[in-house]
Amino acid sequence: MAEPTGSKSVPVLKDLTIDNITENVVRINSQCSDPRLRYIMERLVSHLHDFARETRLSFDEWMAGIQFLTQVGQICTDVRQEFILLSDIVGLSLLVDSIDHPKPSHSTEGTVLGPFHTHDAPADENGFSISADPNGEPLLVLCTVKSTSGEPVEGVKIDIWETDSHGKYDVQYDDRGSKADGRAVIHSDKVGVFWFHAIVPVPYPIPHDGPVGKLLAKLGRHCWRPSHMHFMFEKEGFDHLVTALYIRGSDYETSDAVFGVKDSLIVGLDTVTPEQAKQYNVKEGTKLLAYDFVLVTDKETKQLRHEEAAKAMKSLGREEGMTIINGVPVPDVD
Amino acid sequence: MAEPTGSKSVPVLKDLTIDNITENVVRINSQCSDPRLRYIMERLVSHLHDFARETRLSFDEWMAGIQFLTQVGQICTDVRQEFILLSDIVGLSLLVDSIDHPKPSHSTEGTVLGPFHTHDAPADENGFSISADPNGEPLLVLCTVKSTSGEPVEGVKIDIWETDSHGKYDVQYDDRGSKADGRAVIHSDKVGVFWFHAIVPVPYPIPHDGPVGKLLAKLGRHCWRPSHMHFMFEKEGFDHLVTALYIRGSDYETSDAVFGVKDSLIVGLDTVTPEQAKQYNVKEGTKLLAYDFVLVTDKETKQLRHEEAAKAMKSLGREEGMTIINGVPVPDVD
């Protein structure tokens, strides 16, 4: 069946059946010079084919899938990423974040990035007001960033984004232009503190006027996310942290359409003390969101990632012939 | 962990991890009122998540995948279907055709549809010339259509399409407009015969200026298909047959980029006899492609499809709780 081509044996593809196609596609793809891509394609093709075999996927269903994916691609724009939304509502985004950013206990957990982060948020000082929405309920956000050993971390770049009081991100308005709202980039100070003015987050539906919204409806699922605020932390030497804080008691707290909620990220809102009102220049009675974030070092993350990848290869029975490189399994070159 | 909602138990989604996310996404999707879609989503989510866990998919790799799928969607037009092309080059199209159209022995095998079938081919009589390309090598195509019991089948609608002598389909030219070329729809006559004038097929590359072409290059694979002509057969009472004939000895015969070649569909070209030249109004020495197609009845196909679906459920250990309906497994409603 095989004919030699250089050092590799390439199969003769002339009689592919339900039962032999997978091994043959995998063998053809094994000509790939990038061993990591080769492994990714091997697992992808195996699972895709098993999916078709196990469901006995019909031509009409396959065609419906082709059309669905085409619609998902075609609705994407610079400010709308429907494939990320699709990944979110099938739990893939949460899974990938959990794999790529393993957390030791007592550190802040990560969650889904979502499709609404932008790179044009204004960089500003502590005390900045991130929302220009006059209808939002004022909120003081008062946080610290520490390492797992409890030391304050200075100079962390923190990206924050939230919706307006209507549950919409700035990029969801046609007339947004280049004027960001509901966003900021702030840095933690010498004692690891960062704080800013915002509005109390509200629940919102993920964009549901496209193919992903239609799929959710077909699945009998709602398209809502509970009230939350996004945070992203970057500082050299620390693992990139994408997370969010969820407001305790929000609608949809237990049924987030994108599977982002974690108990450790749910926070009850307080009210500022008279001293805080004075210190942070807010009215008495203003709502307060306070949280202490704990960042993990790159070194800790790499170690954990390596251990968990090794564990996964073991349970897959593929310890042999694979080496964990930068935390991911890569087949050894023959 | 679960709270009752109507008759269903919906999980509380607040602490999803690498290990528990799959069952929770499957349970949320089980609210779907269409049991077939529920099963498809169950298998899809399970395989997608296993893929991520087994590869330890990184955020950057996930993002590369998101961007790749977006590009695939965005290059699609009315006359270019890059997702079908993607399905073709990973062997999914061939697999789905094999599952959906099982063939008893001695019937004509099916193969990939490809992305170039259109619905505007001219309907014409036997003897029609399907190609206007003056540079193509003339070819007489002389075929019969029979049932598995050997009876000629009259009045079968046969869609035929091939490239021009440059290896391009009409729809790949910007100025094609509504004028189809290299295509025809012909019907078999009283004795099951259909024949037409065409040109000798040539190998051609699948469209490789888009994301699928780039993927093939990364995988170290070529993008060529061996010389072939497409055929599609429709007649009430018979299973829809999508197939192609491959010219024996063509370049890429054993390494078709889309896995479409089957031994039973490879045909050597003959030369017309002097009698045939006269009868079919071609020059002496003209090349001849002759083939006897055998169609399967709907009834035979349904029976086979049912048997193979039942076998697949058995080997998956899921005979219980599933019923085979119209040849596909559907979970029983609780």
Major β-sheet strand ordering of chain A:
5-4-9-10-11
- Residues in helix, % of chain A: 25-40%
Global outline of chain A:
globular
Oligomer: homodimer
**What's the total helix number of chain A?**
8
Family (chains A, B): Belongs to the intradiol ring-cleavage dioxygenase family.
InterPro entries (chains A, B): 1_2-HQD/HQD, Catechol_dOase_N, Intradiol_dOase_C, Intradiol_dOase_core, Intradiol_RC_Dioxygenase
Keywords (chains A, B): Dioxygenase, Iron, Metal-binding, Oxidoreductase
Organism (chains A, B): Epicoccum nigrum (Soil fungus)
Account of the 3D structure:
Two copies of one chain form a homodimer. Chain A has eight helices and 15 strands. Chain A has 334 residues and is α+β, with helices and mostly antiparallel strands. Chain A starts with a strand and ends with a strand. Chains A, B: InterPro entries: 1_2-HQD/HQD, Catechol_dOase_N, Intradiol_dOase_C, Intradiol_dOase_core, Intradiol_RC_Dioxygenase. Chains A, B: It comes from Epicoccum nigrum. Chains A, B: GO terms for molecular function: catechol 1,2-dioxygenase activity; ferric iron binding. Chains A, B: Residues 114-295 form the Intradiol ring-cleavage dioxygenases domain.
